[in-house]
Amino acid sequence: MLTAIDAAGEFRDRIDDRVEFEELGIRRTRYAALALLRLIRRARPRVLFSTLTRVNMLLLGLRCVLPERPRIVIRQPTMPARDLTNLRPRWIYRLLYPRLLGAADVIVSQSAVMTTSLRRHVRPGLARVVTIGNPAPDADWAALRSLPSPFEAGTNFLCVGRLSAEKGQDVLLDAFALALQRLSAIRLTFVGQGPLADPLKAQAERLGIADRVSFAGFCPDPGVYLAHADALVLPSRWEGFPNALLEAISAGIPVVATECDGVSAEIVQPGINGYLVPTEDPAAMAEAMLRVLGLRSQGAEPIRQTIDRFRSERIMAAYREVLLGLAAP
Fold first, then answer.
1. pTM (predicted TM-score)
2. Fewer CB in a 10 Å sphere around the end CB: N or C, the chain?
């Protein structure tokens, strides 16, 4: 059974009809306790799997009153240090989350650096911590490349993600303006929407590069953009796990990524599938954007091979081992 606190969103129609789906219809997680408890008492699952910090806390807090004490697996979505700093009210998270995590049977960490952060900042007690990354997409890239390109002619850089402060698109615009001074045929496209859409468009105007920058808005499946792009840039200030990097490398295009929290370094192999740059450094990013275009000459396959460990069948096998192992009588 798949359960959503609130199913309003762009991906609701992607749930397979064969999956039993339950929507609690509650806007705020803090008000979901009774509805979630009623559902668990009715469904009586052997294993509960949660992927969002606030829902993780809620389930772990309810554990002592859950019927038949199901096993609980939580997936840590972001760096714990970021959660403890950014989530509000901060004092509640700092007080409760480190204590509640120890009540989980298994904590799924998305990267080695996240596992280290968990042990340093949260100390998960008796909970078993396993490292399982996110899967690379199984897209038919040849078919996507056969579709009309969404880009104008030229060398096209792509940035995929929510237009928000943590994603660092403002730094990318500064970097692109610098790169454009050295290579006039380049273009930049943002795929995504968010609260900084208008400020970013205004920044492009101030920099005098608005005619070379496109804002495509939200796209539920950016595959056609990835299939036709020359390179992807991830300028994030922080990330839990940079899925956009896996998507781009799976498409066979090289990447430029910031060293956000160290997680990008587990995916990017400098000089092979891309380059890493410091956060908040437009000059370094611009230089890497120009250099990364040279990696296209090796072809797509050497780039794709660098993420074999993230193939979906391997990631799904790791999850099956955890979840089915706990579900066994």
1. 0.92
2. C
